[in-house]
Amino acid sequence: MIENTVLFDVLTHIRQARVLCVGDVMLDRFVYGGVERISPEAPIPVLLVEREKHMLGGAGNVVANIAALGAKAMLLAAVGDDGAGKDVAKLLSDMGVEAELETVTDRSTTVKSRFVSGGQQILRVDREKSRPVSSETEQKIIARAEHLIAQAGAIILSDYKKGLLTDKIVSSIIEIARRLNKPVVVDPKGTDFSRYRGATVVTPNRKELETATGLKAAADDEVRAAAIKIIAGCGIANVLATRSKDGMSLVSATADPIHIPANVREVYDVSGAGDTVIATFASALASGATMRNAALLSNIAAGIVVGKPGTATARPEEIEQVLSAGFAMEKQSYQRKTKYTTRQGAAEQAERWRTRGFKVGFTNGCFDLLHPGHLSTLRQAKAACDYLVVAINSDASVKRLKGPSRPVQDQIARTAILSALEMVDLVVVFDEDTPIEYLKAIKPDVLIKGGQYKLEEVVGYDLITSWGGKVVRADMEEGFSTTNTIQKMVVV
């Protein structure tokens, strides 16, 4: 059993960590729609586009994972002088990443466009140039790296073989980091790991380890033998091998190997799991964690993201939920609903539900002293959607709206009670007077409010209709309200 209190501490300290990622940044473009007919021009499906979503890929997904953990993410990369490069810059800025992007005119920004219908990809289109960057760009990247490495607690080399991480850039960054006593963690590519000589850790998956060594790497002993071959032959201190359903193994030349069983979860999409591993591992190292604890935390984070569609991140509250439940969770434990999360966590969960074709509903209120009127509204709300998000006013917000004597029950108690209800799938708490910022983030398909409100009086009505959603008015149960309940208690 993992000493979960230690990992809780690591997760807390990660928020003070700074991690630099150098590597190939990409733009992942997802185009969602429906297929209802075959083209008359050729035997191919016609996709009627409904929405598009842009996300960071490659090294961009690595820094997205670092930022999601609460650490300070820095990125050094190259983009083309094009619209996709500008999109990458904006996405990085929006998530608070300190990005130094070298704009090059002789290549385009790598873009991977995925066309999705019914939760399945029907086509992927790649735009990229994978040739090595010019010697001029090499010099600029190395010069920028010098001052960034000094600020970081750990450095990641995210190699996707798109041309940025040339031998000269790799060796120069490792040399600078070693001189400054900073750990370097590498997500390797290719068959020659000796180009990463001097790195602290490389994180190959099973296939990459077998390809680089020519050895089978299935059983624990085989993984250790292959890893030792890398360590001895390539001058790399440690190997963190990710092994899919078999978990991961941390191998060094001077200590016994650590084999970590997989954190059992539903597997939906394994893309980007390696990015999560290296981001979590390096962030933990940057916070002062041991390699063992960094690996344990990375294993949990990877188990979370494989249950999400597309490239995804693991957030602290999700990791904390796993730690609270215990590492060796049964399937029933991890499948229970997420009960309470942050705004960003709720937005990501809503997007996962929508990607799987489910309808997301949203309702809000103080929900102080839950009564039959509340239950009726919540049942009607759940009937209008597949998954229901309930936003409640924080204690400070309730006081502003209802007066200094309210709420009767604090937000912790109200969250716990609502989370226990079968019809509620997610609870969020907002400090403002209205949940408008949560509506913008979650973008529900249905907004449910009590029938006492006219449609135009419902907060967020214009927002919901702007993205094609609808507002549903719930029938009210006569004679029930929190105010009436409190008055009855006073009379008694």
Give your account of this protein's structure.
- The protein is of the alpha/beta class and about 500 residues long.
- It has 2 domains: about 5-335, UDP-N-acetylmuramoyl-L-alanine:D-glutamate ligase (3-Layer(aba) Sandwich); about 345-490, Rossmann fold (3-Layer(aba) Sandwich).
- Helix content is about 40%, strand content about 25%.
- The chain has 18 helices and 18 strands.
- The strands form 3 sheets. It has a 9-stranded mixed sheet, sandwiched between helices. The protein has a 5-stranded parallel sheet with strand order 16-15-14-17-18.
- Helix 17 (about 460-465) links the parallel strand 17 (about 445-450) and strand 18.
- Helix 1 (about 5-15) crosses helix 9, helix 2 crosses helix 8 (about 275-285) and helix 4 (about 135-150) runs parallel beside helix 5 (about 165-180).
- The protein is globular, with a radius of gyration of 25 Å.
- The model is unreliable at about 325-340 (pLDDT under 50).
Strand % is 15-25%
CATH superfamily of the largest domain: Ribokinase
Fraction of residues in H or I helices: 25-40%
The count of helical stretches stands at 18
Q: How large is the radius of gyration?
A: 25 Å
Count structural domains. Answer: 2
Global morphology:
globular
Strand order of the largest sheet: 5-4-1-8-9-10-11-12-13
The largest β sheet comes out as: 9 strands, mixed
How would you state the average pLDDT, rounded? 88
| CATH topology (fold) name of the largest domain | UDP-N-acetylmuramoyl-L-alanine:D-glutamate ligase
The chain-level structural class is alpha/beta
